[in-house]
Amino acid sequence: xxxxxxxxxxxxxxxxxxxxxxxxxxxxxxxxxxxxxxxxxxxxxxxxxxxxxxxxxxxxxxxxxxxxxxxxxxxxxxxxxxxxxxxxxxxxxxxxxxxxxxxxxxxxxxxxxxxx
Amino acid sequence: xxxxxxxxxxxxxxxxxxxxxxxxxxxxxxxxxxxxxxxxxxxxxxxxxxxxxxxxxxxxxxxxxxxxxxxxxxxxxxxxxxxxxxxxxxxxxxxxxxxxxxxxxxxxxxxx
Lengths: 116, 112
Prior knowledge:
The structure holds 2 protein chains of 2 kinds. By secondary structure, chain A is mainly beta. Chain A contains no helices and 10 strands. Chain A is 0% helix and 45% strand.
């Protein structure tokens, strides 16, 4: 079946511009995560959606970052007034809470964001 | 606070065995997962331990000791394609939801 997809795969933007990153999770997965990964670094949690619950936004680094998930499926991460330090790979993952699966997360290929 | 500690880099020889350790300090614990990430790729799931002991999947095994807040990933018969970063992650519970808390990753370098 289809995995997690993300678009665009690469995004180059100028400092101060807004960007939107899209994630299409695996069908039926109720949980969706956004992470940020700088070159050679670990995963930085950004935001988490679970079903119809209020999202966990505790990882968002500033109020320039926001995300929404429409209809419990597709999610969009928006970064306003981008800064050079926002340059990173943005990864999306989805998971199902089926018992025994340990909340295995399936990752998309990521969007590489470069802010000039 | 919550933290996971793993070595930043490990070097091994092709054909050998290597162990990557992970110690954790979290408010809750519902299992330890391992993920592999090749350069330029996305993390992919390797293994999951909810109970103490060893789980084996082919050349890879994962071990957990909950009393020691410790686990490891064991890779046998190393191949060049195993060169990647390996992340441990603890499944924790927050506000009625499960989440993964991630380590910073261990870069495995394999020499011929």
